[in-house]
Design a protein that fits this description.
It catalyses: UDP-N-acetyl-alpha-D-muramoyl-L-alanine + D-glutamate + ATP = UDP-N-acetyl-alpha-D-muramoyl-L-alanyl-D-glutamate + ADP + phosphate + H(+). One of its GO terms (biological process) is cell division. Cell wall formation. Catalyzes the addition of glutamate to the nucleotide precursor UDP-N-acetylmuramoyl-L-alanine (UMA). It is an enzyme of class 6 (ligase). This protein has 449 residues and is an alpha/beta fold. The strands form four sheets. It has a six-stranded parallel sheet, with helices on one face. The longest helix has 16 residues. The protein is globular, with a radius of gyration of 23 Å.
C-alpha cells in the first residue's frame, strides 16, 4: 500500500536505522536514509537491494527538512545541527522502537537502567525461550526491532531500552517494564542534571495501564524518591536484597524469594544462580519476577537462572595464566559498572581502565580501590582525570596506549592468585572502534602472553 506523500527520513544508517528503513519501505512510505558518517558496505548493499535512496558523510538539508516524520538513531544528540533545524520546523522525531511498535501486536517487555540492562535482557530472553514462548530479542542488542517487525512474527519481544531511545518514545507502551537502577551516566546529554536523567528513565512506564506490570529496584534511592510522587497506573513489583517485600522479590537467608499476589511462591538458593555477585542477584530477581508475571513454571525459571551463560565483554572470563585470572569487562563504560565489577571480585586486582571520560565522578570507587586495587593501568589518550582521582588511593599508576601494552604490563605486575580486570569506566572511541573492539583486542593480547 502506497502512503502517498508520506516521507520518512531516517538519520543514522546503523542496525536500527537500516531496520527502520526496511520496515518503512514495507509499509509503503517514501523513505530516505542519511548518515553523517560512513555507512558499512553490508548496510549499503541492503539499502540498494530494497531500492532505498541514501547518502553518507553528509546531511543534505533539502532532502531531510521536507520529511513528514524522522526516525533518529539514539546515538545522535539533540544539539546536532540538523536535529535543531528539524525541531524548529516542528517535524516529529521518533526512535526506531516508537516507529516499529506501531506495526506489531506482540507483548512488549522493556528493560532499562544505568547498569545490568544487557544481562537482564539476555537472561529474560533465555528464560522465555526455555519456556517455549515465541520471543524476539532487540533494542540495544542484536538485530533491530524494526527489522524483526518487518521480517519475523514474534508474540513477545524482550527489548533493552536506553534513556536515549526513551527520549524519542511517545505512544509506545511496555506491557512489562523493568527499571533496574539509576546512577549518573550520560549526564552530558541531560544538561548535567540528574533530575532530567531520572525523568528520562521513568518514561519506561509512560502509557502503562492497570493491566500492565512495573518491576523496579526498591533499594535504589533515585527510584524510591521518584516513586514517592510518581503517578504510576501499572501493577508494581519491587525487588530488594535489603528487606522483605510484598508482591515482589527479596532475599531470605541465602534464598531468592519471589512472592506475587495470585501466584505460587518461587524459591532458589543464590548459590545456584548462574550469575554471581550482588548486582547479578538484582538482575536475576528482575528476570524472575518478569517470568512469574507471564505465569512461567517455577522449574523452568529455576533451571534457566541456573544454566545461563553471561554475555561477551561483561565480566567475561578470558584465561588463567600462571595463576592470574584475566577478566574482560569492556562493556563497563561508566563508573557504576566498574564498582559492580570490583564488588564481585574477592582477590587483589590490577585494573585496566580509561578512554573517553563522560564527565565521570570517580568518588564512589575510592573505597574499593583502596581495598582491592594494587595498580591501575590507564588505557586512553588522556588519563589526567584518572590520575587526579586515584593517585592517593593506589600505589602504582601506569599510562599505556594499546591493549597489548596494557596486558603485558598488567601481567608483570599481577601476582599469583590475583585478577587482571579490564573495566574501563569510559567510552572506547579514542583508541578503539567500540567497546567490543576494545574487549576483543584485550582478549587477543591475553592469548599472546
Amino acid at each position: 500500500m502506497e502512503r502517498a506523500g508520506v516521507r520518512l527520513v531516517i538519520l543514522g544508517a546503523g542496525e536500527s536505522g537500516v531496520g527502520a528503513a526496511i520496515l518503512a519501505k514495507k509499509q509503503g512510505f517514501e523513505v530516505f536514509v542519511s548518515d553523517f558518517g560512513e555507512i558499512k558496505q553490508a548496510y549499503q548493499d541492503e539499502l540498494n537491494q530494497y531500492k532505498i535512496p541514501f547518502e553518507a558523510q553528509k546531511h543534505t538539508e533539502e532532502l531531510i527538512l521536507n520529511a513528514t516524520e524522522v526516525v533518529k538513531s539514539p546515538g545522535i544528540a539533540d544539539k546536532v545541527n540538523i536535529v535543531k533545524k528539524l525541531k524548529e520546523k516542528n517535524i516529529p522525531i521518533v526512535s526506531e522502537i516508537e516507529f516499529a511498535g506501531r506495526y506489531s501486536n506482540a507483548k512488549m517487555i522493556c528493560i532499562t537502567g544505568s547498569n545490568g540492562k544487557s544481562t537482564t535482557t539476555m537472561l529474560t530472553y533465555h528464560i522465555l525461550q526455555n519456556a517455549g514462548l515465541n520471543v524476539g530479542l532487540a533494542g540495544n542488542i542484536g538485530k533491530s526491532f524494526a527489522r524483526q517487525v518487518a521480517q519475523e512474527n514474534f508474540d513477545y519481544y524482550v527489548l533493552e531500552i536506553s534513556s536515549f531511545m526513551l527520549d524519542d518514545m511517545y505512544e509506545f507502551k511496555a506491557d512489562i517494564a523493568v527499571l533496574l537502577n539509576i546512577t549518573p551516566d550520560h549526564l552530558d546529554r541531560y544538561d548535567y542534571q540528574m533530575a532530567n536523567y531520572v525523568k528520562s528513565k521513568f518514561r519506561i512506564v509512560q502509557n502503562q495501564t492497570a493491566s500492565d506490570h512495573f518491576i523496579y529496584c526498591d533499594d535504589d534511592l533515585e527510584i524510591k524518591n521518584y516513586m514517592a510522587y510518581a503517578d504510576i497506573k501499572s501493577q508494581k513489583h519491587p525487588f530488594s536484597i535489603e528487606h522483605e517485600l510484598k508482591n515482589g522479590a527479596y532475599l531470605k537467608a541465602n534464598n531468592l524469594m519471589i512472592n506475587l499476589t495470585n501466584s505460587d511462591q518461587f524459591e532458589m538458593t543464590i548459590q545456584d544462580l548462574a550469575l554471581q555477585g550482588k548486582h547479578n542477584t538484582y538482575n536475576s530477581m528482575a528476570s524472575g519476577i518478569l517470568a512469574k508475571t507471564l505465569e512461567i513454571r517455577n522449574e523452568t525459571i529455576r533451571e534457566s537462572m541456573g544454566n545461563y551463560k553471561n554475555i561477551d565483554h561483561r565480566l567475561e572470563f578470558v584465561a588463567n595464566i600462571s595463576g592470574i585470572t584475566f577478566i574482560n569487562d569492556s562493556k563497563a563504560t561508566n563508573v557504576n559498572s566498574v564498582w559492580y565489577a570490583l564488588e564481585s571480585l574477592n582477590t587483589d586486582v590490577v585494573l585496566i581502565m580509561g578512554g573517553v571520560d563522560k564527565g565521570n565522578d570517580y568518588t564512589m570507587l575510592k573505597e574499593l580501590m583502596r581495598q582491592k586495587v594494587k595498580a591501575i593501568i590507564c588505557l586512553g589518550k588522556d588519563n589526567k582525570a584518572l590520575h587526579d582521582a586515584f593517585e592517593d588511593d593506589v600505589e602504582v599508576m601506569v599510562n599505556t596506549f594499546s591493549a597489548s601494552e596494557a596486558v603485558q604490563i598488567a601481567y608483570h605486575m599481577a601476582k599469583k592468585g590475583s585478577t587482571v580486570l579490564l573495566s574501563p569506566a569510559c567510552a572506547s572511541f579514542d583508541l578503539f572502534k567500540n567497546y567490543e573492539d576494545r574487549g576483543n583486542q584485550f582478549k587477543a593480547a591475553v592469548k599472546e602472553l
